[in-house]
Amino acid sequence: MNEKTIDSYLTFRLLNDLFAVNVSQVLEIIETGDEHVITNMPKAPETISGVVNFRGNVVPVIDTRKKFDLEPRQAKEKSVIMVFNIPYHETEHIVGAMADKVVDVIEINPSEIRNVPEVGKGIDSHYIEGVLNRNGQFIMLLNIKAVINKDDIIDLKGLSEEAKTDELVVQ
After folding, report:
1. Strand order in the sheet with 128-134
2. How far is 48 from 38, CA to CA, in rounded Å?
3. What is the dotted CATH code of the domain comprising 7-165?
C-alpha cells in the first residue's frame, strides 16, 4: 500500500467500543425511527434484525452487536443503520448493519494502522483488518466483507426474496 495514500473512514460506536469502515463502502446512514422502521422477519437468522426500506428496496439489516457477541440492544434503544454495497459473485448486494451511533469521518494514513494483536485462541479477530490509536482511543478498522460474509449474503438474499414475494410493506 502506498504510504502517501490517506483514506477516509466512518467511525461508529457499539457500546463503548469504537469501530471504523472505509467510507467508500458506505452508501448511506439511516437513523431508525418513525421514517425508517426495521420490520422483523419470521425465521430470519439470529444476527439479522429484519428488513428496512432503502430507496424503495427491501434491505436486510444485520445486528452487529449479535454478530460480535456483544450485549443485546434494548427494544427502545436508539440506533443507526449503515447501508453498504457488498460485492459477492460479481453482484453487488445492499445490506444494512446496525450501530449505536455514528461518531465522525476521519482520515487515516496507512502508517498509523497497527496489526491486530494476537491475544489468544478464544478471540476471533478476522473481522478486524487493523487497529488505530487516536487520541488515546483504540479504533478497530473493520473488514466489512468479513463481517458480512458469503454465508450472510446467501441468507440475506433469501430473506430479501422472501420479503418481496410476501409483498411485505416496509415503512
Report:
1. 101-108, 7-14, 17-22, 137-142, 128-134
2. 10
3. 2.40.50.180
Sign, CA torsion 70/105/79/126: negative
Secondary structure of residue 150 in the 3-state scheme? helix
| Distance (Å, whole) CA 47 – CA 29 | 19
Give the residues across from 106 on adjacent strands. 9
pLDDT per position as a tens digit, 107-143: 999 999 998 876 654 445 778 889 999 988 999 999 8
Q: Where do the domains of the chain lie?
A: 7-165
170 and 51 Cβ atoms separated by less than 8 Å: yes
Residue 55's nearest CA partner among 74, 80, 27 is 27
3-class DSSP assignment, residue 53: strand
